[in-house]
Amino acid sequence: MMGLPGAGPLRSVLYVPGDKPRAIEKARALAADAVILDLEDAVAPEHKAQARTNVRAALLAGGWRVPVLVRVNGLGTVWEHEDREMALLSGACGLVLPKVEDDRAALELSLGRPLWAMIETPRGVLNAPAIAAVPGVAGLLVGANDLARALRTRPHPARIPLLHALSAVVLAARAHGKVPLDAVFNDVRDPAGFVQECEQGRALGFAGKTVIHPDQIEAANTAFGVTEEQAQQARALLTAWEEGRAAGRSVVTFGGSLVEGMHADEAQEVLALWAARQQTVIDRPEGND
Description:
The protein is an alpha/beta fold. Helices cover 46% and strands 15% of the residues. The chain has helices spanning 21-27, 48-61, 80-89, 103-108, 122-126, 128-133, 144-151, 163-175, 191-204, 217-223, 228-246, 261-283, and strands spanning 12-17, 34-38, 68-71, 94-97, 115-119, 137-142, 179-182, 208-211, 252-254, 257-259. α1 links the parallel β1 (12-17) and β2. The longest helix is centred in the last third of the chain and has 23 residues, at 261-283. It starts with 11 loop residues before the first strand and ends in a 6-residue tail after the last helix. Pfam families: HpcH_HpaI. Its cofactor is Mg(2+). This is Citrate lyase subunit beta/citryl-CoA lyase. Keywords: Lyase, Magnesium, Metal-binding.
């Protein structure tokens, strides 16, 4: 599923603070599937104006290999209008709006660019289906830190207190053909924990994961991607499906199992993910393996 015009699968989406020019420049060479230049939580109030200037310069300079979104400050803040105007005029591929709680906000911001709605409050979770139904919304991103705080949950390595909310966001997004992206993992010193959470997110139905550190990109791409063996299996299944259909058979089997149209569609998705992985390897500059 593609949530941005011309974009492939979004396995890893990297947040980059807008007030860190060196980090923004480094992000150009990384293997994330998309980048979010952040003007909101990652930027202190006294640095907001400079961050906006930095992001504008980075967008106008071009040269990005992947889609670049801008997370603007939320509705009702003193920075919201300038953030949105800058992002729209500078060529951002889409806007990430924090703390979306109803479809009204999404409808008001249908500005001709894809809108990515952050679901990070109880009201946002309950209204996720209506938010996802808005035509201008490309996807839903979980903001687990704020959501956990609002729900008064306790930290848990398996995110058990948040499972209902996480699944509700996936269900809402998938029901309306939108892209669900999993929340960030805070402890960059715990790669094993990050991999575990990626695998859980994939099992729950998320399309990819938002990340906060370059070291998390490869693990997210792997967890939400496919292996060569899986790609070979998908090709073989599609061959069996196409040959069976061409021969007029009403029942097609592969590996002893009945194959239906949904299995062929799933195999096509697997191959799309595989192609994205191959393109990432081809495009990645030397010295960034």
